[in-house]
Amino acid sequence: MYKADHPSSKNCKEVRRMGIAEKAHNVKIVGSGEKTVVLGHGFGTDQSVWKHLVPHLLDDYKVLLFDNMGAGTTNPEYFSFERYANLEGYTHDLLAILEEFEIQCCIFVGHSLSSMVGLYASILRPDLFSKVVTLSASPRFLNTGDYFGGFELEEIDQLCNAIESNYKSWACGFAPLVVGGDMDSVAVQEFSRTLFNMRPDIALSVFRTIFTNDLRELLGQVTVPCHIIQSSKDLAVPVSVSEFLHHNIGGKSVVEIIATEGHLPQLSSPEITIPVILRHIQHDINQ
Question: For residues 271 and 64, what is the distance between their CA atoms, to the nearest angstrom?
């Protein structure tokens, strides 16, 4: 199932010696400080999505950035359609990166896909995480029963068909809708750039994985403090989802809804979003 040279292969001593995770995920460590902040990105982006946040962390924290497998900046030959058909593959990648760089404990900041990967990883290895800060997180995008995730299965199927039939055309329409702006905005152009960098068949696979994912039953096993940050208007994640996370996470959690529009507020509204993320990184939950 896994490639022998994949960063999450079982031969951990060999992985650390060769630095495979570093190479495969374009890992970069910047800044200084006793505490480590790890930044994980969402679908269609790469570590550059954090460009407005990183400068504010350099003086006080060691910052680890990486690219999820499948991002346009990674080698598509490393992408396994079977491995990344669920979030386990991404989760073990994250744990392998932390192990390779000997990160004993970190503050994990995850956007969208990576927010759930961070929570999943914190269940498997709670000792590695002092807190998880999520941005635009969702344990399930599909509506079901009394749960409102924001999408019907038919809508997801239509989006997948559009990706498969004409990826470039789909991306041109998807980017402004998700970011919350027109094609002339810098944020939309930036998201479009990283979206276009993905290989279309990989983008389709990752998109399908994310939008059919369901981690609701795992939330009660999360014991590390969780800081949930959410845009007040997000096409992909309704505000009600952040409340669902808050009420179902097993450990301490707090929610902050920010007056921003779009699924990538760290790009589209950095002047509002970055101070909020910083505050949640710097301060713990009081309860």
Answer: 22
Residue 134 bridge partners (DSSP): 110, 228
Terminal Cα distance for the chain, rounded: 44
Strands 61-65 and 28-31: antiparallel
Tell me the per-residue pLDDT of 179-198, one tens digit each, with 9 for 90 and over: 997 778 999 999 999 999 99
Catalytic residue among 8, 112, 138, 268: 112
Among candidate residues 25, 227, 263, 280, the one labeled active-site is: 263
| Angle, helices 113-124/88-100, rounded to nearest 10 degrees | 70
Is 234 marked active-site? yes
Tell me whether residue 263 is one of the annotated catalytic residues.
yes
Tokens encoding 142: 């599909």
pLDDT tens digits, 11-34:
333 333 447 899 999 999 999 899
- CA–CA separation, 222 and 216 (whole Å): 11
CA neighbor of 143 nearest in space, from 91, 86, 216: 216
